[in-house]
Amino acid sequence: MDINAQTYPRLVRPALVIAGLAAFVSLTWSLLQAGELQMDPVLYWLWVPLWLCGFVALVLRPVRLARLDADTVIMSRMIWCNIGAVSLAILVPSLLRLLLLAVPLYGVMYAAIHLARSQVMLVSMVTASVYLSGVVYLTAVDAVDLNIEVFTGLAFAALLAGVLLIGTEFQAMRDGLLERNRGLRDAMERLQDMALKDDLTGLHNRRSITELLARQKALADRGAQTFTLCYCDLDHFKVVNDRYGHAVGDVALKQFAELASAVVRNVDYVARFGGEEFLLVLVDADTGTANRVAQRLADHTRQMWIPGTDNAFKMTVSVGIASYQVGERVQDLINRADEALYQAKRSGRDRVVLA
């Protein structure tokens, strides 16, 4: 069976965890058999399965734990793993103990790579507390040499501090990469908007609406849904620029864009096709529906007041409507709507004409 690149890491990580736990249990069992682990065999076989079952439960994330966020679950895994590892390690003679303590150190390192600094510190504090509690107990019952335990404890503390220091560097690198990735993602989104959106109005631009029309054509040719095009042109727009200035003309374009967006549904598309020309793509709509939308847009346009103009000035719009016919080219559809728009212009403007 082939394993793709996405599935492979998901299989490797659990396999490594299982292999590491099996190696640790095998090592502690060997030390128990050799008399180096100061623990009753019955107690060993009670504690180890309980520890492993708890760890597996945290990995599988039962229903109650599923409500927790991923970081909290990872922190819980590392704390439970380190409690079990340290509790067994302190029962081994000091010279062998540092070998077993590598496991909780790896746990702290894993936490440092994946978790926030406060969570890593909590994992470290629990690890150190379990170790200190175990040593204090063994010293109290005269099961260990205090001088050797002080040396071993200092060595473990130094190793733990070193792991935390390295983990902090990992966290700084991770945070830097995440920040750069966010910056790149934001830049890509801005570039995409620049490529597909009109700078002035925020509507789809000519390139974007052309691609959308191609997709709508493919859907209509398969019988999924038809669509109708409204080709809009603001009447005498050159007068606005000449009389009031281009800044006022830009305001007029933005206001009309808002009106056009308001009269269509969420499934429809509005685009600035060029200059003062706009396209409305009405999805799954016939010419009757498009005519009502265009008439509503024309009414709102007559009522539109443009800041910077006098009260006598009224903006109007001419609209040509064409419904897509299965099999025709998108450019032919646009040409038919443009021809209807031309007829509206010749008929006196401020009109809606069906192709």
Describe this structure in words.
The chain is an alpha+beta fold. The protein folds into 2 domains: 7-189, no CATH class; 206-354, 2-Layer Sandwich (Alpha-Beta Plaits). The chain is 68% helix and 9% strand. The chain has 13 helices and 5 strands. It has helices spanning 7-33, 41-60, 63-66, 70-89, 94-100, 102-114, 117-140, 146-196, 206-221, 237-244, 246-263, 287-302, 330-346, and strands at 227-234, 269-274, 277-283, 317-323, 352-354. A 5-stranded mixed β-sheet has the order 2-3-1-4-5, with helices on both faces. Helix 10 (237-244) runs antiparallel to helix 11 (246-263). It is elongated, with a radius of gyration of 36 Å. The two termini are 59 Å apart. The mean pLDDT is 86.
List the keywords:
355 residues, alpha+beta, Alpha-Beta Plaits, 13 helices, 68% helix, elongated
The best one-word shape is: elongated
Most strands sheet: 5 strands, mixed
Radius of gyration: 36 Å
Uncertain regions: pLDDT < 50 for 5+ in a row? none
Total number of domains: 2
Give the class from helix and strand content and strand pairing: alpha+beta
Mean pLDDT rating: 86
Give the percentage of residues in beta strands.
5-15%
In short:
The protein is built from 13 helices and 5 strands. The chain has 355 residues and is an alpha+beta fold. The protein has a 5-stranded mixed sheet, sandwiched between helices.
List the helices and strands and how they pair.
Elements: H1 7-33, H2 41-60, H3 63-66, H4 70-89, H5 94-100, H6 102-114, H7 117-140, H8 146-196, H9 206-221, E1 227-234, H10 237-244, H11 246-263, E2 269-274, E3 277-283, H12 287-302, E4 317-323, H13 330-346, E5 352-354
Parallel strand pairs: 4-5
Antiparallel strand pairs: 1-3, 1-4, 2-3
Helix pairs in contact: 2-4, 4-5, 4-6, 4-7, 5-8, 6-7, 6-8, 7-8, 10-11, 11-12
